[in-house]
TrEMBL record:
This protein's record includes keyword Methyltransferase: yes
GO biological process: lipid biosynthetic process; methylation
Organism of this sequence: Blastococcus aurantiacus
PANTHER family in the record: CYCLOPROPANE-FATTY-ACYL-PHOSPHOLIPID SYNTHASE (PTHR43667:SF1)
Family: Belongs to the CFA/CMAS family.
Record-linked SUPFAM superfamilies: S-adenosyl-L-methionine-dependent methyltransferases
Record-linked InterPro entries: CFA/CMAS, CMAS, SAM-dependent_MTases_sf
Stated name of the protein: Cyclopropane-fatty-acyl-phospholipid synthase
Length: 428
C-alpha cells in the first residue's frame, strides 16, 4: 500500500524523539530488513524489538547503551563516523548531560512501541552492568574496591589485546600522530619520571599502579625503589609477574592496598596516574592531605587526571559510563581539581600541562587495536564487554577532540626541603 510506514520509518521517528531532533543523521535498518534515513549516512541496525522496549523504559543514553551492549543495536559502519553523527544533532549536540525527552516525545515513543509490538516488562540489563548497591556507602573502602574490580578485573588478556605490550591504561604523550602508541606510552612514562625529579635511590609511591609499567620504568631507567598499589587483584598478579620477569623484585613491591591504608612513608615522590577520577569530589581534600602526609618535605606529587570541561557536574549513577565503565567515578574541572589538591597551601603547584589532544589519539589507537583483535577480545571477556569498551572509548575520543573533556598533569610539591628548578625546562 502506497505511503505505508515501514519498521525502519517508525524506528527513525522513535530515535528522533529520544535524540530531540527532526532530522536523524543516521540510516536505520529495521529487524525486518527495511531501511530509512538519508542515503550515504552511517547505518545503525536495530535487530530486535527488545531494543525499542529498552528505550521506552530508559529513553536516553542508558537505554541506547544497554541495547548496544546486548547486541540488539549494531553499528554497521565506522564507529567514529556513527558516533560523530549522533553527537551532531539534538540533545547530544549540547555539551554536558543528555537532557531527557519531553513528555510528548515519550508518549510518541510509547505509541511507536505499541504499533511495533515492543511493549512489555523492562528487560533485564546486560550482565556487564555494574550493581554496587550492596557494597556499602559510596567511596567506602569496600565499595571503592568493588568499583575498581568491576572495571579492571575483566581479564588481563583482554587488556593486553587493547593496550598492547606497554600495558599502560592512561593518556600517552605523542610527538606527532605518527609516533605510534607504544612509543607514545614510553614517552609518557619518562615524562612522569622527569617531572617527579627521580634520581637513583629515590622512593616512589605509585598510587593506582595498574600492571606495573611506570614502576618498572622508574626502577630501570631512574634507579628508584617503588611501592605500587592497586585495588585490582588481577592487575597486581600480572604486575608482580612482569616485575619478576625483568629482575626487579628487590626494587619494586606491588600491593593490593587502598591509599588510605599506607603507613610506611615518607616517599620522595608520588605518582597518581588516572586514579583520582575514582576518588570523587567529596573525597579529594582527604586524598590530597593523605598524599601530602606521605611525602617528605620537598617531595613531589604528579596527579594525572581526566577533566570535565563542559561545566559543573554532579554525580549521576544513571549514565552509561556510571553503569558500565567507571561506577562511582567522577570527573572534575581542572580549576576545581587544582584548588582541591592545593588544600589551603599544603601542596604547592609547580606545573600544569594539558594533554587533551593526546588522549584523543590514544583512544583512537586503542579502538583500532580492539577492532583488529575483536574475536580474541570477545573470547577473552564477553561480547558485551568488548562492546562496552568499543562504545566508551570511541565516544570519549570524540569528547576529547571536541574539548568537552580534557586530561591534565598537575605537578605539586610538599613545601620544605630543596627548592625546585627555576624553569620547567628541567622536565619538559
Amino acid at each position: 500500500m502506497a505511503g505505508r510506514r515501514t519498521v525502519a520509518d517508525r524506528l527513525a521517528a522513535a530515535l528522533s524523539a529520544v535524540l530531540g531532533t527532526t532530522e536523524l543523521p543516521l540510516r536505520l535498518r529495521g529487524w525486518d530488513g527495511s531501511v530509512a534515513g538519508p542515503p550515504g549516512a552511517p547505518v545503525l541496525a536495530v535487530r530486535s524489538r527488545r531494543a525499542l522496549r529498552r528505550l521506552v523504559w530508559s529513553p536516553g543514553q542508558l537505554g541506547l547503551g544497554r541495547a548496544y551492549v546486548a547486541g540488539e543495536i549494531d553499528i554497521e559502519d565506522d564507529v567514529f563516523d556513527t558516533f560523530a553523527a549522533l553527537r551532531s544533532v539534538g540533545r547530544l549536540a549540547e555539551k554536558g548531560r543528555m537532557v531527557p525527552p519531553t513528555a510528548r516525545d515519550r508518549l510518541g515513543l510509547v505509541g511507536t512501541a505499541l504499533r511495533l509490538g515492543a511493549i512489555g516488562p523492562e528487560p533485564e540489563p546486560p550482565a556487564e552492568e555494574a550493581d554496587l548497591g550492596r557494597s556499602g556507602r559510596r567511596h567506602s573502602r569496600r565499595r571503592d574496591a568493588a568499583a575498581i574490580s568491576h572495571h579492571y578485573d575483566v581479564g588481563n588478556d583482554f587488556y593486553e589485546l587493547v593496550l598492547g605490550p606497554s600495558m599502560v591504561y592512561s593518556c600517552a604523550v605523542w610527538a606527532s600522530p605518527d609516533t605510534g602508541l607504544d612509543a607514545a606510552q614510553e614517552a609518557k612514562l619518562d615524562l612522569v619520571c622527569r617531572k617527579l625529579g627521580l634520581t637513583d635511590g629515590d622512593r616512589l609511591l605509585d598510587v593506582g599502579c595498574g600492571w606495573g609499567s611506570l614502576a618498572i620504568h622508574a626502577a630501570q631507567r631512574y634507579g628508584a625503589t617503588v611501592v605500587g598499589i592497586t585495588l585490582s587483584e588481577e592487575q597486581a598478579q600480572l604486575a608482580r609477574k612482569r616485575v619478576a620477569e625483568v629482575g626487579l623484585t628487590d626494587r619494586i613491591e606491588i600491593r593490593v592496598q587502598d591509599y588510605r591504608e599506607i603507613d610506611d612513608g615518607p616517599f620522595d615522590a608520588i605518582s597518581s596516574i588516572g586514579m583520582s577520577e575514582h576518588v570523587g569530589r567529596a573525597e579529594m581534600p582527604p586524598y590530597a592531605r593523605r598524599l601530602h602526609d606521605l611525602l617528605r618535605p620537598g617531595g613531589r606529587l604528579l596527579n594525572h587526571a581526566i577533566a570535565w570541561n563542559a561545566g559543573t557536574t554532579t554525580w549521576n549513577p544513571d549514565t552509561f559510563i556510571a553503569r558500565y565503565v567507571f561506577p562511582d567515578g567522577e570527573l572534575l574541572g581542572l580549576g576545581e581539581t587544582v584548588g582541591l589538591l592545593e588544600d589551603g597551601g599544603a601542596l604547592e603547584v609547580l606545573d600544569v600541562e594539558a594533554l587533551r589532544q593526546h588522549y584523543a589519539l590514544t583512544l583512537r589507537a586503542w579502538v583500532r587495536r580492539l577492532e583488529a583483535e575483536w574475536d580474541a577480545a570477545v573470547a577473552a571477556s564477553s561480547p558485551g564487554r568488548a562492546r562496552v569498551w568499543r562504545l566508551y572509548m570511541a565516544a570519549c575520543a570524540l569528547a576529547f577532540e571536541s574539548g568537552e573533556m580534557g586530561v591534565n598533569q598537575v605537578l605539586l610539591r610538599r613545601p620544605g626541603g630543596e627548592q625546585p628548578p627555576l624553569r620547567r625546562d628541567a622536565w619538559v
